[in-house]
TrEMBL record, chain A:
Its cofactor is thiamine diphosphate. The keyword tRNA-binding does not apply. Keywords: Thiamine pyrophosphate. It comes from Subtercola lobariae. The lineage of its organism: Bacteria, Bacillati, Actinomycetota, Actinomycetes, Micrococcales. This is Transketolase. SUPFAM superfamilies: Thiamin diphosphate-binding fold (THDP-binding). CDD domains: TPP_TK. InterPro entries: THDP-binding (IPR029061), Transketolase_N (IPR005474). Residues 15-288 form the Transketolase N-terminal domain. It holds the Pfam family Transketolase_N. One of its GO terms (molecular function) is magnesium ion binding.
UniProtKB/TrEMBL annotation, chain B:
It holds the Pfam family Transketolase_C. Its cofactor is thiamine diphosphate. SUPFAM superfamilies: Thiamin diphosphate-binding fold (THDP-binding), TK C-terminal domain-like. Gene3D superfamilies: 3.40.50.920, 3.40.50.970. This is Transketolase. Residues 2-168 form the Transketolase-like pyrimidine-binding domain. Keywords: Thiamine pyrophosphate. It comes from the Bacteria. GO terms for molecular function: magnesium ion binding. The gene is tklB.
């Protein structure tokens, strides 16, 4: 049945998020290439969505009534795959095929191959437009589902994103919510300015008031710490209220840390992508897995 | 005589009455592309995105996931260039049923000049896997192609012209994907063309006949997927093939024909006429067609020259 599952206790969600982080690092390391920092920064947000918010059914991934999820920052695919696997869309063992030839788990999400992937992505900046089209189509067809889309903060430099921000409001899409993974880093970016930036490079939106810009476009803007389940759930509640009141699209600006959850990957652009060596992998295992967790 | 853009909009209105998946997504050009006709008839299935072509493509893709089969309404140049990346990832790679109507393609777009003249669309779109690429010749074929596209699963690019040309096909013409159409029998020279240029080439053949050159005229509506056998049969017995297109001579129809003949080991000279790796300019239609060698008279002249020289070179 396509439905929202009962919200698990926060401790369980935290455990799932640690598992996701482990699968991200381990899978990418075994595959010998892939992105780390972006998948880790959005892990808590995706766990919260898939394990409490989205009305979905892993047994029927194409149910027309399901909520839609668009990972606009497609390079973080392994993060999404790990969550989908834990949620039951495909076996966890299948993660090992990530990036391999003949795999359903392509380097970037492919809606025609992977159960649970609603929209293909990889070229940054396109997911919000796709989500606007989906939400608009739902409106026209009289469907009740909600459309969610996750964007990177570097990704917001793409002009197409702002075309879509404008359209979403013009079309009054209260059934659309964007989440910005504001992890303060992108792939390379600019040199950090001492005392002004959170991490080792300049913040993509350090020079501008992003929430203000989004408010100016008429969106409902909710600012949270993207690693706090309490704040994430509070944001989901606000989204629901905004949607019910027909306030137009909403956006959760989630302040996160790139590479969050693993001591050596956090807060550095250097772990945008990469693979761990044996010592690092052992350390990550110790930091993320508890007894009883499958590795 | 009717312009293809009028035919496009009228046909869509007709089909949309029976098929509720037909939609139009516009980029602030509905009163040029004639999508305004559709907007009036089906306001609920008309989406005005504004001047944001990449976004248009993304939105059309999103709508397609809900079972709609939207047509995009903008100038071809802004689709095949400005919005190419979303077309590639969201439409072509996903095999979405989005219809890319490239209005105002080629040189003739109301004197707008090179910024608006799409002379690379066939080369670009033809290279894109999954995409069906069609360039109808006249109003009859345009209507047939629009109808065909509405019923087709998957992405289609349709090259449409702004201004009317003399119709060359009978009203009961049936469009068949891939097949070429012999508009005029003759030989041993085969003139191969596509889109509305085929109509001008047909007229050129009449001029050539008066000068004693009997040319066959072959129209290629489907740039992809081309039924190669049908092309080979159409040029069978010809000793010189001349392609003429309102497009750059690189990678479009000329490329397609040359590639096809080569891969079948057919060793006839192929002369490619069109824009010889150059941009065009503003000007009235007649001026542009003459200057760039695409009017019936200029085509006849260039064909004569090519036949006399019988050299497989591109002549501008
Ligand atoms: C259009 C496009 N340009 C460039 C890239 C290459 N690229 C992949 S990830 C990335 C950085 C993304 O930064 P951000 O959006 O902040 O993502 P995150 O920090 O969450 O990894 C770049 C430049 C791309 N995938 N698409
Ligand atoms: Mg970032």
């Amino acid at each position: 049945m396509t439905e929202r599952i009962e919200r698990p206790p926060v401790r369980e969600l935290e455990r799932l998020a640690r598992l996701v982080r482990w699968h991200v690092l381990n899978t990418v390391t075994q595959s010998k290439a892939g992105h780390i920092g972006g998948p880790l920064s959005m892990a808590d947000l995706l766990v919260a969505l898939y394990f409490s918010e989205l009305s979905i059914d892993p047994e029927h991934p194409d149910d027309p009534e399901r909520d839609r999820f668009v990972l606009s920052k497609g390079h973080s695919a392994i993060g999404l795959y790990s969550v989908l696997a834990l949620r039951g869309y495909f076996p966890i063992d299948e993660l090992a095929s990530f990036d391999h030839g003949d795999s359903r788990l392509q380097g970037h999400p492919d809606m025609r191959l992977t159960p649970g992937v609603d929209v293909s992505s990889g070229s940054l900046g396109q997911g919000l437009s796709a989500a606007v089209g989906i939400a608009l189509g739902a409106q026209k067809r009289g469907r009740d589902f909600h459309t969610w889309v996750v964007l990177g903060d570097g990704e917001l430099q793409e002009g197409m994103v702002w075309e879509a921000v404008n359209s979403a409001r013009r079309f009054g899409l209260s059934n659309l919510t964007a989440i910005i993974d504001l992890n303060g880093l992108q792939q390379y970016g600019w040199a950090a300015q001492q005392g002004r930036d959170r991490f080792d490079r300049s913040e993509p939106w350090g020079h501008a008031d992003l929430p203000m810009i989004l408010r100016g476009y008429g969106w409902t803007v909710i600012e949270i710490n993207g690693h706090s389940f309490a704040e994430i759930f509070d944001a989901f509640d606000q989204v629901k209220r905004a949607a019910e009141s027909g306030a137009g699209p909403s956006v959760i600006v989630a302040r996160t840390e790139k590479g969050h959850g693993i001591s050596f990957t956090r807060g550095t652009y250097k772990w945008h992508n990469g693979v761990a060596d044996e010592t690092q992998l052992a350390l990550a295992r110790a930091e993320l897995l508890t007894e009883g967790d499958q590795s | 005589m009717k312009a293809q853009r009028d035919v496009w909009a009228e046909t869509l209105v007709e089909v949309a009455g029976l098929d509720d998946t037909v939609m139009v997504v516009d980029g602030d050009l509905a009163n040029s592309t004639k999508a305004d006709l559709f907007a009036k008839a089906f306001p609920d299935r008309f989406v005005e995105v504004g001047i944001a072509e990449q976004n248009m493509v993304g939105i059309a893709f999103g709508l397609s996931t809900l079972g709609y089969r939207p047509w995009l309404s903008t100038f071809g140049v802004f689709l095949t260039h400005r919005a190419l990346d979303p077309i590639r990832m969201l439409v072509s790679q996903t095999h979405a049923s989005v219809r890319l109507a490239g209005a105002y393609s080629g040189l003739l777009n109301g004197s707008s000049g090179k910024t608006h003249q799409d002379i690379e669309d066939l080369a670009i779109m033809r290279a894109m896997p999954n995409l069906t690429v069609i360039a109808p010749v006249d109003e009859v074929e345009a209507a047939a192609v629009v109808r065909w596209s509405c019923a087709h699963d998957g992405p289609v690019y349709v090259r449409l012209a702004r201004d009317a040309v003399a119709p060359v096909l009978p009203v009961d013409y049936m469009f068949e994907l891939g097949s070429v159409v012999v508009l005029r029998h003759g030989g041993p020279v085969a003139l191969v063309s596509t889109g509305v240029q085929s109509s001008r080439v047909f007229d050129a053949a009449e001029l050539l006949a008066a000068q004693g050159i009997d040319a066959r005229v072959v129209h290629v509506p489907t740039i992809k997927p081309l039924d190669e056998t049908s092309l080979l049969a159409a040029i069978d017995g010809c000793t010189h093939v001349i392609t003429i297109e309102e497009h750059t001579i690189i990678g479009g129809l000329g490329g397609l024909v040359a590639e096809t003949l080569t891969s079948h080991g057919i060793a006839v000279p192929v002369t490619r006429l069109g824009l010889a790796d150059s941009w065009s300019e503003s000007g009235p239609n007649e001026f542009l067609l003459d200057k760039y060698g695409l009017s019936a008279g200029r085509v006849a002249e260039r064909v004569t020259a090519a036949v006399l020289a019988d050299l497989p070179t591109a002549v501008h």
